[in-house]
Design brief:
With 81 residues, the protein is mostly helical. The chain is built from 5 helices and no strands.
């Protein structure tokens, strides 16, 4: 199944992660350092230029102090699967 980076589902995931990053006053560069990744990694997934794997999503949740269960609940509220 080919994933569309501009679908509602992908956009919702990006928005939840970005909103959490902003909520805890973390800059992209700070998150990148926590993940041991370049800042462009954060910029590209937040803009939809790069899709995240499940493992990457969980790592980002941990770095953002976001329980993956909470992420899933919020995601399901916005996306009908």
């Amino acid at each position: 199944m080919k994933r569309n980076p501009h679908s509602l589902k992908e956009k919702t995931l990006r928005e939840i992660l970005r909103n959490q990053r902003i909520k805890i006053n973390m800059r992209q560069i700070d998150l990148a350092e926590k993940l041991n990744s370049p800042q462009q990694f954060i910029s590209k997934y937040e803009s939809g230029d790069r899709l995240l794997t499940f493992a990457e999503t969980v790592e980002i949740c941990q770095a953002l102090q976001l329980d993956p269960n909470k992420l899933l609940k919020e995601y399901l509220l916005h996306c009908k699967i």
